[in-house]
Structure formats: C-alpha cells, structure tokens
Design goal:
The structure holds two protein chains of two kinds.
Chain A lengths: L3 H12 L6 H12 L8 H11 L5 E4 L5 E5 L8 E7 L4 E9 L2 E7 L11 E4 L4 E5 L9 H4 L10 E2 L13 E4 L4 E3 L2 E4 L2 H15 L6 E7 L7 H10 L3 E9 L23 E2 L10 H14 L4 E2 L9 H4 L8 E9 L6 E4 H17 L7
Parallel strand pairs in A: 3-12, 3-13, 13-16, 14-15
Antiparallel strand pairs in A: 1-2, 2-12, 4-5, 4-9, 5-8, 6-7, 6-9, 7-8, 10-11, 11-17, 14-16, 16-17
Helix pairs in contact in A: 2-5, 5-9, 7-9
Chain B lengths: L1 H8 L9 H11 L5 E4 L5 E5 L3 E10 L4 E7 L5 E6 L11 E4 L4 E6 L14 E4 L15 E4 L4 E2 L3 E4 L2 H16 L5 E8 L7 H10 L3 E8 L19 E5 L7 H14 L4 E4 L6 H6 L7 E9 L6 E4 H16 L6
Parallel strand pairs in B: 3-12, 3-13, 13-16, 14-15
Antiparallel strand pairs in B: 1-2, 2-12, 4-5, 4-9, 6-7, 6-9, 7-8, 10-11, 11-17, 14-16, 16-17
Helix pairs in contact in B: 1-3, 3-7
Classes of the chains: A alpha+beta, B alpha+beta.
C-alpha cells in the first residue's frame, strides 16, 4: 500500500525530469565498484533495491534474482512498457584449490584470455584482493612471450593466510576502481552498470503516461537468462533494453577509413537496428529517431552485426514483444577498464525518457 | 499458381522487413479466410474455422535472407552484413535491391589469392554513388538479392523460393480448402532465417493441437552433391528429422497414411543440417506434436533456387488430404 507522504514525494519527483549530475555519477561509481558476476548478483541487487524502493508501486525479486519494479502511471489505456538493464558482469569463478592461496579459475561470460595476465582481482563477497600472476619477463624465452597464455595455466593468487575466507565457487572480478578521465568516466563493468544507473534514474522519475516495468536482470552475460523469465512475468506491450555497446572508434594505423567501429564516443546514444539476437521493431526505431530529431538529441545507429542484448530473449517471449535496444557507447568493454563519455550517458537518458513520454496506446499501430 | 509464385518470389522481404510480402499475401488470402490478423512480431495469422476447435497450425515463412548496410564510406561504397545464412561465394557479382528501390552490385577488395572467397567484411555494394551525400543507402537499410523468376516448365527458379514456395503452397491450400474438420491457422511467419523467431511467438499465441511447417529441403540429386535421399520431381518430402527437430512419429505416420490413401507420391526426409519453424512449434508452451512437409529445392540460399512444380502441386494435394480428414495420432 502506498502512503500519502510517499505519494506526495512521488508526485514531486515525477514532475521533475531525470538527469545525470553529481549524485548519479556517485551512484554509478558505487555500482561499478560492486562485484556481481553472472549468477551471483546479490551485492548489486542490494544497491538497486535500496535505490528503487521509495519510488516504486511494487517491487519483487523473482526466483532467478531479477528485481522487477512496477511504477504505475495515470489515466486509461496505459501501455505496459518494460525497460531492462542487466545487473551482472563478466568475471571469474574459482574452480579448484591448488595450494594455500592459489586457485584455478574459469571465466564467466566472454573475456579475452589476453586481458588476464598480471591483473589485480577482488574475490568473493568480502572483496578479498588477489592477483592473476604470470612468469615475469626475466624468466621467459622470446617464443613463450609470443603466445597467448590459456586460462587453464593461469591462477588467482590471494597470498597465503587469507584463504580461509576464500573458497571454490566464489566469484572474482577485476579490481579496477572508478575514476574520471577528462570528459570520460572509467571503471569496470559499465556493461551494464551504466544501464542500471540509467534505469534507476527512470524509476525515480517515472513517466506517468505508461506503466513502467523496470527489470534489473541477472545472467545476461551467459545467455540472457534473467530477461527471459522477467519478460514472461511482466508480459509487457513493448520493451526497451538499456545496455553498453563497444566503441572501436580509433584511427587505423595506415590512415584508412575505419569502417568497422560499431559505435563512436561522443556521437550520442546508439540505437540498435539489428544485432545477433534481435531485429529491432522498426516502429520503435522510428519512435526513437523522431524523438531525437524533434528534441535535438544526438544519436547514432550501432552498426548492424553480431552481439546481442536482453532484447533477444524479451522479443521472443510469449506471443511476441516488440523490442528495441539503446546503448551508451563504451571503449574497452569486457576488459579491466571501460571508458564512456559522460555526455553520451546524459543524452542516452534524455532520449529514453523523452521517448517513453511519447508512448501512447497507438504507438504500435 | 505460377503467377502467384512469381509475384511472391519477386517481392523483397528479408527477415524483420517482411511488410511488402505480408501485404501481398494478405490480399491473396483475405477472400478465403474467416479471420486475418497480424501479431506483435508481424506474423500473418489466417484462420479458417472447422467443426472441431482443436487447432492445426500450418507455418510457412515469409522472410528471405538478405543484407543490411553497416557503413557508407567516404566514396559512397556501402559496407554490409548478412541477414540470415548468406554465403560469401554466392555474393560476388550479385545484385541487390534495397527496400527503398535502390539497386546495387556486390564487389570485393583486391583478392591476393583468388582461390579463396573473401569474407563479407571485405566486400561492398556499389550503388553508383560517389559520396555518402549522394548515396541513396544509409546505415541499417535492408536489401534482398535481385534475380527475376525463371519458368523452365516443370522446374521453377528464383531467389527466395525458400520459403515463398511454402507460402504459395499454403495460399493454394487455403483457396482449395472446403470446410476443414479442425480449425486451421495458416501462419505466414517472420524472421525464420534468423532463428525461427516469428514461429516461436506465433506458436505460443495459437497453442495448436498439432503443427506442421511447410518449407524447402535440400536434395542429393546434383553432381557430386552430399548424399541425401531426396530428389526433385519425386513428390514432397515428409520430414523425419533435421538438426533442430525429431518429427513426432505419430505425425509422420499420419502424413504417410494420408499420402498412401490419396495415392500421392512422397519421399522420406532425413536432413543433416538446418531446421524449420516446426522446431519452434514443437517446444512451445507444454509441447505440440509437430512435423514438416518439405518441398525439395536445389541451391538453397543461392540467388537461384530451383524447385519442381509437380512437387509443389502434390504438396498442396497432401495438405488438403490432411485437413479434410480426421487427425489420428497413434
């Protein structure tokens, strides 16, 4: 049940537009620094629950751990609009204890083995520090150094003594802490903490023309598993997915035109037309493009190709759910440090919020 | 029926962009249907009432493989990616038609070794432009391969026979259908070539009693082709298995019995690659007995796919036989 005081607060909040300012950047910092490898999203779920509770009409944590938040609008024939962002990140899983303080591990989600050697990590819910060590240059031959070291031959070393707190089955992440770099933000797991931060801001400033069904999903990085069941529960009329997509907008070595950049930093939110899992609903692409052009919000199309978002699972749920994805472009995703441009994040929130406010029961006709 | 086939195959409709095909089909089926509607993903659902409310779902996909523009370079060349199973060796020198009407040809960067087919990333589409400004194509624009319909008498050739020939067979079946025993839902599905996406949601929405896909299958009757006991001109093929589905044996038996009873030629199909909308139907909700009637087709996913017109006509007759008699699954 809603109480009057909360209704009053909500009305005030709903009348103001969402924005990205110091408080939201601090929240992103918290989200980025938290550890939530696929299947073990508890730490992030706590932050999300704490942030959304006061603004929501209904909050449930479902059987898989998705946080499903309903913000009801006002008026008749309100479209039910699902907006999803995934809480989980890629990382590591300790698989076998080799020795005191030395663990075998496997990757969870797609991580390039070349990114691993020599990186500090944090292990388990208490974030115990460790390192992925490697034989140093002094002791290696030239031939050895030209080869990628497989994950099988790498270990996480947490040093002797502390491993009573660390056990097989614990997850680990890169140890990167959030920092600012000029106009950019850097940290681990912006894929998809930046989507989570955006969705929290939308929940606390929910548009009233729709029922906003916010899904903070689990297990995206290992096959869109949380979104699949979240969409079944919500059974929405249409869906938006907020994610973070690679930008490979660097100049080529010989000065030739870069034709495969995926997205570019500074060019605004990236709208998906097609990826490996979803062909976006053309009506929703149109809604986003028209909104951007009429509101003067910059945008870009993510280059059609592979990869995928939670939309791949949502679109195919039940009798079909028209879906589209919007991403903040980010450099160096799935490595220890991702880099996004603050302005792109702000414009992504602006675009999604403006588009949500334009949705009516006729949007899909 | 040949004119229906020609119209269908010459209408472009890559996966996700089936609107033109849907409009053509809708016009053809409306006079014969009890209800026609389009679902959330764009599947065209055509209902024909019967005395038994348990539904038979028949699915043929409207979409075809194609390409999508990913970048227009500073000289107006269009880089592209595939929609569905586009093979690079079928692309070089080919022509494409974008949905906005723009035509283009596919070229490739200099090949250092001509015995190796370059990947799509090394190819581009030349639409006759010289800069992004005068290029009629933008990132995200969709094109289908361009090739006119060819009538060789018994044999018919076109791009997108996969699966417009199935669409044509369903339309013809609907036109010839008297009162079916069971309610029949003809599903003209979307996005099959990218992963049976349309049939997945259509099957959930319909929740059929039994489901059949009508799609093409490959043959083993061309020079040095991989062995396969399906040939052009020997009748439609009753699918036993493919990579995505084991047909329900009761459905296979039902189809075989109907073919024998009506004296129609048929072949048994065991396909080692690929799958059809029947896979999605079979595993929807709590499960559906499913099978597939295949139309043998040579050169699948090349811009010239060949079928036998007699096989198509026999397929229609078999579908009518199935719909006009009681379903017995045993």
């Amino acid at each position: 049940m809603r109480n009057k005081q909360r209704d009053k607060i909500m009305t005030q909040e709903k009348s103001s537009a969402p924005r990205i300012a110091a408080a939201q950047i601090r929240l992103l910092e918290r989200l980025s620094n938290a550890c939530a490898v696929s299947g073990d999203e508890g730490a992030l779920r706590q932050v999300v629950l704490e942030q959304v509770r006061s603004a929501a009409d209904d909050v449930i944590v479902d059987a898989l751990g998705n946080v499903l938040v309903t913000c009801r609008g006002q008026g008749k024939d309100r479209p039910r609009v699902m907006v999803a962002a995934h809480m989980d990140e890629v990382g590591f899983l300790l698989t076998h204890k080799e020795n005191e303080g030395i663990f075998h591990f496997d990757t969870v989600g797609r991580i390039d083995a070349r990114q691993l050697v020599g990186k500090p990590v944090l292990v388990g819910s208490e974030q115990i520090p460790g390192v992925i060590g490697v034989k140093p240059v002094h002791l290696t031959e030239i031939e050895e150094r030209s080869k990628v070291i497989s994950i099988k031959s790498l270990r996480i070393d947490i040093g002797l003594g502390k491993d009573s707190k660390v056990k097989v089955g614990d997850r680990a992440t890169f140890a990167t802490r959030f920092f600012r770099l000029g106009r950019n933000l850097c940290g681990k797991a912006f894929d998809d903490r930046i989507g989570v931060a955006t969705l929290i801001e939308l929940v606390t400033h929910a548009p009233t023309n729709i029922d906003l069904l916010a899904a903070f999903t689990v297990q995206e990085e290992i096959g869109l598993r949380g979104a699949r069941v979240a969409a079944y529960t919500f059974d929405p009329d249409l869906a938006f997915v907020l994610d973070c997509t690679p930008a490979f907008d660097l100049p080529s070595w010989d000065g030739e035109e870069n034709t495969r950049y995926n997205t570019r930093l500074g060019a605004g939110p990236a709208i998906y037309i097609a990826d490996g899992g979803t062909i976006s609903d053309p009506r929703l692409i149109q809604l986003l493009v028209r909104t951007a052009e009429e509101e003067g919000i910059p945008y870009q199309f993510r280059q059609p190709g592979g990869g995928g978002t939670d939309a791949g699972a949502i679109q195919r749920q039940r009798a079909g759910i028209p879906s589209v994805s919007i991403s903040v472009p980010g450099r160096y995703l799935h490595t220890p440090v991702s880099l996004v441009r603050l302005e792109d994040w702000k414009q992504t929130l602006n675009l999604v919020y403006a588009a949500l406010r334009r949705i009516t029961s006729k949007t899909l006709t | 029926m040949k004119s229906i086939i020609k119209t269908l195959v010459e209408t472009p409709g890559p996966s996700g962009y089936e609107a033109q095909v849907r409009a053509v089909v809708r016009k053809m089926v409306e006079p014969f249907a009890d209800e026609v509607k389009v679902d959330a993903l764009g599947n065209l659902l055509v209902r024909k009432c019967g005395s038994d409310e348990r539904k038979v779902m028949l699915a043929a996909h409207m979409d075809e493989i194609g390409i999508m523009a990913t970048h227009v370079d500073e000289n107006g060349f269009v880089r592209f990616t595939n929609i569905g199973g586009v093979r690079p060796f079928n692309c070089l020198g080919g022509r494409v038609r974008f949905l906005n009407g723009a035509l283009g040809i596919i070229g490739a960067e200099r090949m250092l070794d001509e015995s190796k087919v370059p990947p799509l990333e090394k190819m581009y589409i030349d639409v006759g432009a010289s800069s992004p400004k005068d290029c009629p194509v933008h990132v995200g624009d969709v094109a289908a391969f361009e090739r006119p319909f060819l009538d060789l008498g018994d044999r018919l050739v076109a791009k997108a026979m996969d699966d417009r020939i199935g669409v044509a067979a369903l339309i013809e079946t609907l036109r010839c259908l008297k009162t079916p025993l069971h309610e029949v839902v003809f599903v003209f599905s979307v996005q099959e070539e990218v992963g049976l996406r349309g049939a997945t949601t259509a099957a959930f929405g319909i929740s059929p009693y039994v489901g059949l896909a009508v799609d093409v299958t490959r043959t083993g009757d061309t020079p040095k082709e991989a062995k396969m006991d399906v040939a052009l001109g020997k009748g439609p093929a009753i699918k036993v298995r493919d990579r995505g589905m084991l047909s329900d044996p009761r459905v296979v038996d039902w189809m075989v019995r109907a073919a024998k009873k009506a004296g129609l030629p048929y072949q048994m199909e065991v396909l080692e690659r690929g799958t059809t909308d029947a896979k999605a139907i079979q595993i929807t909700q709590a499960g559906v007995p499913a099978g597939c009637l295949s139309i043998p087709c040579r050169y699948i996913h090349a811009p010239s796919e060949m079928v036998d017109f007699g096989d198509v006509q026999q397929a229609v007759k078999l579908l009518l036989e199935l719909l006009h008699s009681p379903i017995s699954l045993k």
